[in-house]
Amino acid sequence: MRINMRNPENSDFSILTLDDDPIMTATIQTYFQNAGYMVDAENDPHVAIERIRGGNYDILLLDFFMPSMFGDAVVREVRKFNKDIFIILLTGHKSMAPPIRTIRDLDIHGYYEKSDKFDQLEILVESSLKSIRQIRTIRKNYIEMTMAIRKMVDAKDANTKDHSERVAYFGYRLAQEMGKPEDFCERIRLAGLFHDIGKIAVPDDILLSESKFTDAQYEVMKKHPEKGYEILSTFSAFMEIAPIVKYHHEKYDGTGYPEGIKGEEIPEESRIITIVDSFDAMTSKRRYRDGELSVEHAMKELLEGKDFQFDAFIVDCFAKMLENKPEYLEEEIGEYYK
């Protein structure tokens, strides 16, 4: 039998144990708390789903056979909004476990046949932790790489930093306003941060010009979306957002660049970035323009550009978001667009 000893490193991980039997959840909770884990217990599957939605659990220890809701149904609900949590099924008998295909389809990481000893369950939890640690390391490296690329862009043009952060933030909020899932919203945020990365390839005498571009300079500047696509495509982590960046200067009527695609041929993420990018450009100070436009004036320009430059539905969503000024936007709008 394994010796259940408290490991201080385990305190970085949280477990939710769900079983309709309070004795079982209390026993599991005590066992893993003694090993140093943060453990919560729940006996109602519906409540457990909401706790996962609002919490930050790494592992779910889930009883499969519960009269009010079977374990596979719980997993299906959880997987609608959380793809990351590791799930281990607990069964009274191995014959009652769901078929292997279901386990694979629902991304369940293992199952444990209940007994009065938790050695095997502890091994399954430890195996899950190894994977979670690897994922955390990969995400840490991803964030560090993202910051390194951001600093490279900022070194080229200091004005890019604040603009890109605003485009990322308000693009993310707009996607939320449209009811998009979290992975979609996150793509918008990341694409917003890097939508101008291609400007690294623009010569300083053009990029930092104090006056409006000449036709020749504008032709050079127009290449930055494609350059951004080329740069981001070299990183596997950014492949998904590379097309968004490439098409963020396309127009809804097909008169944009680099390819002149139109309507729904343009990725929806790009259509969102285009609107927020244009709005911020109008409401921000630029070297080649005296002052900035008011929020009202900029919004008027967007509304007039519906179905020509911009996707009308997305413009209306953005207008609604600014008009209603949800609580989470009040401070940011006041700070960025006074």
Helix and strand topology:
Elements: E1 14-18, H1 22-34, E2 38-42, H2 45-54, E3 59-63, H3 71-79, E4 86-91, H4 100-105, E5 110-113, H5 119-156, H6 158-177, H7 182-194, H8 204-207, H9 215-221, H10 224-233, H11 242-246, H12 268-283, H13 295-304, H14 312-324, H15 327-336
Parallel strand pairs: 1-2, 1-3, 3-4, 4-5
Q: Please, could you describe this protein's structure?
A:
With 338 residues, the chain is of the alpha/beta class. It has two domains: 8-135, 3-Layer(aba) Sandwich (Rossmann fold); 157-336, Hypothetical protein af1432. The protein contains 15 helices and five strands. It has helices at residues 22-34, 45-54, 71-79, 100-105, 119-156, 158-177, 182-194, 204-207, 215-221, 224-233, 242-246, 268-283, 295-304, 312-324, 327-336, and strands spanning 14-18, 38-42, 59-63, 86-91, 110-113. A five-stranded parallel β-sheet has the order 2-1-3-4-5, with helices on both faces. Strand 1 (14-18), helix 1 (22-34) and strand 2 form a beta-alpha-beta unit. Helix 2 packs parallel to helix 3 (71-79), helix 7 (182-194) crosses helix 12 and helix 12 (268-283) packs antiparallel against helix 13. The mean pLDDT is 85.
